Amino acid sequence: EKLSLFAVTAPGLEELCAAELREMGIAAAAEPGGAAWEGTRAQLFDANLRLRTASRVLVRVAEFRARTWFELERHARRVPWERWVRPGGAVRLRVASKKSKLYHEGAIAERLLDAVARSVGPLGSAGTAGGGDEEDEGAEGQLFVVRFHYDRCTLSVDSSGALLHLRGYRQALAKAPLRETLAAAMLLGSGWDGAAPLLDPMCGSGTVAIDGALLARKVAPGLASPDRTPRRYAFLEWPDHDARLWDQAVARAAAEALPSAPGPIVASDRDAGAVEAARANAERAGVLDDLALEARPLSAMEPPPGPGWLVSNPPYGVRVGEAEGLRNLYAALGRTARAKLPGWTLALLSADRALEAQVRVRWEEALRTRNGGIPVRLVVARVEG
Questions:
Q1: Are strands 152-158 and 56-65 parallel, antiparallel or unpaired?
Q2: Mind listing the pLDDT tens digit for each residue in 215-228?
Q3: Is 223 within 8 Å of 296 (Cβ atoms)?
Q4: Are 329 and 296 a contacting pair, CB within 8 Å?
Q5: How far apart (Å, rounded) are the C-alpha atoms in residues 275 and 267?
């Protein structure tokens, strides 16, 4: 059976996600908001388990034109809801309608929920989800995503459940935590190959270093735990779930993991509390032995023998401190890099070109996205010797 699949990403990460899928042997194409392909149930499992930059994986289950409530109801009753919802199960709908005759999103949801109940019987609970992924983290129930655009309805079922950046390890947080999917995008977008030395001298709760260790060891992000037990996914509750095929996907991913990172990964922060948080998170991810974690200021960083990659998410002055007060921090990063990191590659997530300029290197933009609603760029530069 071929499924119409779509991996959702943050804006700007579409090409990275498509490249990840192609590395898995999946012929995916980047589209606005993610990457699309026609694939098998096994590929659905692999995408959820292995994608580092995707937020969730959707299965497009129906597409039709509807300009009246009668048309919507007629098409909705043809959808095989019983494939994804058990009797008595909970259901959530996220509805968006633009430039369509049927513009009342609550009324659209009401008709669709009625169709689900007609198909599978009374629901345990049913409702509408928030407008964005951030609004329903941890919410219960099978999610369906409904998009009306110019009277064309696309109906998708979410196969992931909790957002895929929730690997499970990041429970201890420092200031302005970085999503795991964005940390992975920084590493992939910087050109780091997983074998060269990696350094994050402003590591916070350790997300860049930890996801770096997972990447270096070829550990699927869905297996980010000491015993490599997979996290939970929505598709595990589908009535037609193929448990044998899923077990095979998990076994393949687990067998590919390396016993240790091939190169040194060093993470430090001037905040000792942040370093302790990073240590606890790394232990939960099963990669603590792959990291050298230390509390030390930026100017005292001790890089491993290089050249390698410095990849970091420094404060922008938007949420943590003021931009003017950060000029010295960025200038110090530049001085320290020129003194200690000749031949290295620098990659920073930046929200302020004026602060970038303080580092005094020749930056190139690798990607643009958003971090916590803030427009940011990943900028990459080579440190001259």
A1: antiparallel
A2: 999 999 999 999 99
A3: no
A4: no
A5: 8
